[in-house]
Structures are given as structure tokens and as C-alpha cells.
Automatic annotation (TrEMBL):
<dbReference type="InterPro" id="IPR036429">
    <property type="entry name" value="SpoA-like_sf"/>
</dbReference>
<keyword id="KW-0282">Flagellum</keyword>
<dbReference type="GO" id="GO:0003774">
    <property type="term" value="F:cytoskeletal motor activity"/>
</dbReference>
<dbReference type="InterPro" id="IPR001172">
    <property type="entry name" value="FliN_T3SS_HrcQb"/>
</dbReference>
<keyword id="KW-1003">Cell membrane</keyword>
<keyword id="KW-0969">Cilium</keyword>
<comment type="similarity">
    <text>Belongs to the FliN/MopA/SpaO family.</text>
</comment>
<dbReference type="InterPro" id="IPR001543">
    <property type="entry name" value="FliN-like_C"/>
</dbReference>
<dbReference type="InterPro" id="IPR012826">
    <property type="entry name" value="FliN"/>
</dbReference>
<keyword id="KW-0966">Cell projection</keyword>
<dbReference type="GO" id="GO:0006935">
    <property type="term" value="P:chemotaxis"/>
</dbReference>
<dbReference type="Pfam" id="PF01052">
    <property type="entry name" value="FliMN_C"/>
</dbReference>
<dbReference type="InterPro" id="IPR051469">
    <property type="entry name" value="FliN/MopA/SpaO"/>
</dbReference>
<dbReference type="GO" id="GO:0009425">
    <property type="term" value="C:bacterial-type flagellum basal body"/>
</dbReference>
<feature type="compositionally biased region" description="Low complexity">
    <location>
        <begin position="13"/>
        <end position="25"/>
    </location>
</feature>
<keyword id="KW-0472">Membrane</keyword>
<dbReference type="GO" id="GO:0071973">
    <property type="term" value="P:bacterial-type flagellum-dependent cell motility"/>
</dbReference>
Length: 171
């Protein structure tokens, strides 16, 4: 007689419960653990039998409809018709230009350009003269947000420099 014969066996009922819990936590199709098995929350238990039956009925209804209405390879698709567009009464009101009054733009007037080496820039002092690639009286370029939009001439008005726009540059 063996030594274990008189001792009680491990609880077979608890082993069966553990096996059933493991089986419930494994997807029967892929044999992979379900997400519920990892967190133990039992979210699948929240679905009622009525919910499952309703989902199955919807799925089978969709399958029946697909089987009863087969699509032939010769079938021509019907074009989609859009209704004509109509103006709504509120869109005809025009807004004034004052609406753009708060829009900030980067305006730059370029008198001319030059290229200088770094040591030449470091030698600049008050009163230094920098030669530009444009002559006096040539039109200056007007840039808005980095895009050339106009050319004009420099004027002095009330001891301030001004630019009179003489040409708008097309886009």
C-alpha cells in the first residue's frame, strides 16, 4: 500500500472549478486568452442573453439580405444625384473691411540688397555708408508676409519716410 493512499487527494472540485474558469477565459476559436482573462473584470458577463440573441438576429438578417439580392458583374452603378445648391438668406450680407482691422501682417519695404563679409559688418560704425544694388530713385519693393505685392517710391512727408505705391505685382 502506498503512503498517499490514506491521505486525502487534492480537492477535485476546486481543480474542476479552476479548469472551468480557465476554459471560460480562452477564446474557443483562436485558443488565445480573452481580454477579460487578463484583468479578471468579467466584462463579458455584462452581456445578457437577449443582447446576444438580438446581435445574432441582426447578423443573420444581413446575411439573408445579401443572399437574396446578389449583385451581378454586369450591373451598372447608379450615379448619385446632388440637390442644387441654394443661397441661404444670411449669406448675402457682406461684411465690411473693418473685419480685417485686427489681422496682423508682416510688412517690409526693401530699399535694396547687398552682400557683405562678416568682418565688413563688424567694421560698421555710426555714419558708415552701405552701397545697395539699387540706384536712388529706383522703385522699392513692398513685401507682405514675405511675398512681393507691390513696388513704390520713397517720399518724405512731415519729416517721415513714406512709400507711394506705383505698381501692384500680380500673383
Amino acid at each position: 500500500m502506498s503512503e498517499n493512499a490514506g491521505q486525502p487527494k487534492p480537492d477535485d472540485a476546486s481543480a474542476a472549478d479552476a479548469s472551468a474558469a480557465t476554459d471560460a477565459a480562452v477564446d474557443p476559436i483562436t485558443d488565445a486568452p480573452t481580454p477579460d482573462a487578463a484583468d479578471g473584470s468579467g466584462a463579458a458577463d455584462n452581456l445578457s442573453t437577449d443582447d446576444i440573441e438580438r446581435l445574432l438576429a441582426e447578423a443573420s438578417g444581413g446575411l439573408d439580405q445579401a443572399v437574396n439580392h446578389p449583385v451581378s458583374a454586369d450591373a451598372e452603378p447608379a450615379p448619385f444625384q446632388l440637390d442644387p445648391l441654394q443661397d441661404s438668406p444670411g449669406e448675402l450680407d457682406r461684411q465690411s473691411v473693418d473685419l480685417l482691422g485686427d489681422v496682423e501682417l508682416d510688412l517690409r519695404i526693401e530699399l535694396g540688397r547687398t552682400q557683405m563679409r562678416l568682418d565688413e559688418v563688424l567694421q560698421l560704425r555710426s555714419g558708415s555708408v552701405v552701397a545697395l544694388d539699387k540706384l536712388a530713385g529706383d522703385p522699392v519693393d513692398v513685401f507682405v508676409n514675405g511675398r512681393l505685392i507691390a513696388r513704390g517710391e520713397v517720399l518724405v512727408m512731415n519729416d517721415n519716410f513714406c512709400v507711394r505705391v506705383t505698381e501692384l505685382v500680380g500673383v
